[in-house]
Amino acid sequence: MAVYTDVSDEELQAFLSDYDLGELVAFKGIAEGVENSNFLLETERGPFILTLYEKRVNPADLPFFLNLMEHLAECGINCPLPVHDRDGRVLKQLAGRPAAIVTFLRGISVRRPKVAHCALIGRSLAELHKAAEGFGMHRVNTLSLQGWRALFDTFADKADLIAAGFSAELADELGVLEDAWPTNLPAGIIHGDLFPDNVFFLDARVSGIIDFYFACRDTLAYDLAICLNAWCFEHDVSFNVTKGRALIDGYSAVRPLSAAELNALPLLSRGAALRFLLTRAYDWLHTPQNALVRPKDPHEYRRKLRFHQSVRRAEDYGIAT
Amino acid sequence: MAVYTDVSDEELQAFLSDYDLGELVAFKGIAEGVENSNFLLETERGPFILTLYEKRVNPADLPFFLNLMEHLAECGINCPLPVHDRDGRVLKQLAGRPAAIVTFLRGISVRRPKVAHCALIGRSLAELHKAAEGFGMHRVNTLSLQGWRALFDTFADKADLIAAGFSAELADELGVLEDAWPTNLPAGIIHGDLFPDNVFFLDARVSGIIDFYFACRDTLAYDLAICLNAWCFEHDVSFNVTKGRALIDGYSAVRPLSAAELNALPLLSRGAALRFLLTRAYDWLHTPQNALVRPKDPHEYRRKLRFHQSVRRAEDYGIAT
Questions:
Q1: What pLDDT shows up at residue B316?
Q2: pLDDT in tens, A33-74
Q3: H or E element that contains B50
Q4: Which of B26, B29, B111 sits opposite A107 (nearest CB)?
Q5: In percent, how much of chain A has pLDDT > 70?
Q6: Which of B8, B25, B293 sits opposite A202 (nearest CB)?
Q7: Residue B315 and residue B321 in contact, taking contact as beta carbons nearer than 8 Å
Q8: Cβ separation of B8 and A112 shorter than 8 Å?
Q9: Which residues of chain A does B31 touch, with a Cβ-Cβ cutoff of 8 Å?
Q10: What's the mean pLDDT in A24-35?
Q11: A292 DSSP 8-state letter
Q12: Among all residues of chain A, which has the CA nearest to that of B47?
């Protein structure tokens, strides 16, 4: 839930005068994304989303994110299409912040994905990976192995406030991953944050993929490992092997996985679990107790990490052998 | 800014199955109103607003609010029209809370109202008062004179944390109003909270009046006094007499004000300023320092109150004599 920046009607009207979007007919802050301020912007041309980029996004990365969305949309991926102003620009300024208008995507996020959703998202992820092959820009993953160590170091001395022994547990896992992290698997542009709240479904298809603000160049199968974590566990944090199989089969149907990629899945899934565990632990320790927006409980990903630690073979994720 | 309650896609689909609204096509939490959780709900039939009523609203009052909106909408007032389910009900339950769907109103709120907006809102307020004449339900104003005293008593000992001498200032003003508050002026249904963020404009007309959750039976001219406070001061908290005249003239063109009502305006405006000063001071003292949603600064209404205290004649508000 967001909307951090207030935009006055006068600032907005002046901003919109740069675009060919017709008259403004409605404007409402929406609770979408946690990093930025998002608004539903309805004009004579239809509904759009206006995003103001807040502090957590590096302005230097914005051309990458916006150009990526434009590239993917042009390749047929259902992602927001940045809208150009009359001078052809998509990245602008509003209320003292970088700002962009993108198309509005219909559809509904699912809270508890079913097997069919996992199959669809596996396919969509592979389509996204393939569509991004022709994208020419580069962005390093700041939340990969080196980033995890740097992030952990900022709160290693406080991690035990979350659970006894938690700091040692994280240090051990980081050590394991630093020794064994695969570096020679197929790489490309990954979404990096493809959680159910970043996907819309409509009429039994994926109608929208949003929030590309963690997209970067990294190991493609790592993106699939993020989805295994985000889509295939039940609310009691037990892994649903049928969902895992549906996700991986959906992905493989579009972009077949190599034996090396399949064999790396347990390790990549540990890394993905650790990545979200670290950011959630950080947010947990740095959010005031009485803040109105509660950070997500890090224990969910602690339990997911433990599941992946127990996995010995890729088959445990549901892969048919 | 709100959205306190999370609604899952499954709960929502089950809820919508009671209505003839067609398939759901989009659903987003919106930052509108501060008392309740509001969602943009788009179905095949178009956009709607779904409201979940949170703790600050007394569920026993909801039939009054919803029936009032329906009555006003039927009388041609541009306010949200509650949507009936197949059994004819408008007040339902969702996610453990009272809930209702209303129509979506187009238009934009203005941050800095101009003279023309004040004229339009004066006219709309009078039209609302006249349209409500035939409304049969009753609700006492819990935030009138007796309510102010009760609210003040809850924080009288802490008020000086806001400003030195603030508690005595509030006590003195309450005493003055308790002695002089007019009780024999024309009464009817008032909106009670007609601030610029509760009004939408489109094509130089009032396209929407929302947030009826303070509506009640009270002195009609007191509602106008609330608008004088909410619409006719500049950002530096100086009173703009041209806006005051536009508001009062707009109102009078639809519902002429009696001499008694005009003469009472300075006192009613003091009461209106005190009402918002008290609730803002209460919220200021009861919101944690580091909460993400900051309460509104009570000093704005302290300065407005002082202006009204200095007013000797209704002419000072811009009334032509």
A1: 87
A2: 667 899 999 999 999 999 999 888 899 999 999 999 999 999
A3: strand B46-52
A4: B26
A5: 95
A6: B25
A7: yes
A8: yes
A9: 3, 28-31
A10: 85
A11: S
A12: A47
Write out the residues of chain B at the interface with chain A, using a CB-CB cutoff of 8 A.
1, 3, 8-10, 12, 24-32, 40, 42, 104, 106-112, 200, 202, 288, 290-293
A5: pLDDT confidence band, cut at 50, 70 and 90? confident
**What does the alpha-carbon distance between residue B152 and residue B177 come to, in Å, rounded to a whole number?**
14
Residue A1 has pLDDT above 50, yes or no: no
* H-helix or E-strand spanning residue B223: helix B220-231
A-interface mutation test, from B30, B39, B55, B202, most A Cβ less than 10 A away: B30
Two tokens, residue B154: 């809850």
Answer whether residue A296 shows pLDDT above 90.
Answer: no
Handedness of CA A56, A60, A64, A66 (dihedral sign): positive
Do residue B29 and residue A1 have CB atoms under 8 angstroms apart?
yes
Give the mutation candidate from B3, B108, B286 for the A interface (greatest A CB count, under 10 A): B108
**Residue-by-residue DSSP string for B69-131:** HHHHHHTT--SPPBPP-TTS---EEETTEEEEEEE---BB--SS--HHHHHHHHHHHHHHHHH
User: Nearest to residue A263, comparing CAs of A292, A221, A303?
Assistant: A221
**Which of A30, A45, A202 should be substituted to probe chain B, the one whose Cβ sees the most B Cβ atoms within 10 Å?**
A30
Residues of chain B with pLDDT under 50: 1-2
Domains assigned to chain B: 9-103 (3.30.200.20), 115-317 (3.90.1200.10)
Q: Which amino acid is present at A12?
A: L
Q: Which residue has the tokens 């992290």?
A: A181
**Is the ipTM here above 0.90?**
no
Chain B residues with CB-CB distance to A202 below 8 A: 25
Q: Mean pLDDT throughout A302-307?
A: 96
CA distance A207 to A201: 5
Task: Name which of A8, A28, A110 is nearest B40 (Cβ-Cβ).
Answer: A28
Q: Which one-letter DSSP state was computed for residue B24?
A: E
Contact B239, B231 (CB under 8 A): no
B22 phi-psi bin (left φ>0, alpha ψ -120 to 50, beta other): left
Cβ atoms of residues A194 and A221 within 8 Å:
no
> What is residue A295's predicted lDDT score, i.e. its pLDDT?
78
Model-wide pTM > 0.95: no
Distance CA A202, CA A194 (A): 17
**Alpha-carbon gap, residue A314 to B245, rounded angstroms:** 76
Residue of A nearest to B30 (CA): A30
Residue B27's DSSP bridge partners are B41
**B195 is written with which tokens?**
């601030």
* List of E strands, B166-316: 187-190, 199-202, 205-209, 216-219
pLDDT in tens, A84-139: 999 999 999 999 999 999 999 999 999 999 999 999 999 999 999 999 999 999 99
Give the up-direction half-sphere exposure of residue A284: CA atoms within 13 A in the CB hemisphere: 19
Q: Which strand (E) or helix (H) includes residue B217?
A: strand B216-219
Size of interface A-B (CB pairs under 8 A): 85
For residue B255, give Cα distances in angstroms to B76, B148, B189, B199, B202: 16, 28, 14, 20, 24
Residue with the two structure tokens 């032509």? B320
CB-nearest to B29 from A31, A200, A291 is A31
Phi, psi of B29 (to 5 degrees): -65, 140
